[in-house]
Amino acid sequence: MELRSSTSSHDHLLQSHTNHINDIISKLAQFEKEVADCNSSIENFAKYIDAIKGLKTKAETVEIKSRTIENYLEKYLPIFTQSQISESLHHCLPSTNKRKLLTYEEKKFREMNNDVLIDDGNPDLQKRIESMYIILETTVKRYSKSLAANNLGIKFRESETIKHEGSSRMLKGRASGGLVDSQQATDRTSRDQKQNNIKLPQFVNSHNDG
């Protein structure tokens, strides 16, 4: 009887331990699943990090290229553009104007060369854009003054032409009037002579009759 009671007690304890072990195994399996999920998340996170590093590298490359382009546009493109313009002008301008061009080139290329010599690789294209506004404003003002002077010169020449044509018409009118007056005087003299020739015989005849 005691043995049966002792066996039953041991069976109950064994079952309790078995249930506890099964519970631990279940929790362990759940934990292993969570660990696997964490490992997967870590792997995905590592991939995200690699992707971000790649994007960062590309962004840095694009930034370097952008700065290089801006630096070229700011300091080197003006030299190339001015060289093309100067070459064209040297082939088109006469010798007298070429001397003026050479003087301007010496000053302009020296300024652009100084910009290249102090180039630190850090462009300031916005400053160049702002200076372009000033250059454009100066150019427009210079063009407006030139256009106004040109229009004034055209009006002056038109006025002189009108005066000259008026004087010519007056001179022609006077010369034509003189010819008309002379012709009219000649006609009057001719008529008077004809009248005298007609009256003279009448006078002679009346005198002989008397």
Write up what this structure looks like.
This protein has 210 residues and is an all-alpha fold. It has two domains: 1-123; 127-205. The protein has helices spanning 2-92, 95-117, 125-209. Helix 1 (2-92) packs antiparallel against helix 2. The chain is rod-shaped. The model is unreliable at 198-210 (pLDDT under 50).
Brief description of this entry?
The chain is mainly alpha-helical. It has helices at 2-92, 95-117, 125-209.
Radius of gyration, in Å, reads 57 Å
Structural class computed from helices and strand pairing: mainly alpha
Number of domains: 2
What's the helical proportion of residues? over 70%
**β-sheet strand percentage:** under 5%
What would you call the shape? rod-shaped
The main pleated sheet reads as: none
- Integer average pLDDT: 77
Q: Number of DSSP strands?
A: 0
Question: What's the tally of helices?
Answer: 3
Question: What is the CA-CA span between the terminal residues?
Answer: 220 Å
> pLDDT below 50 for ≥5 consecutive residues: which ranges?
198-210
Oligomer: single chain
What is the succession of H and E elements? HHH
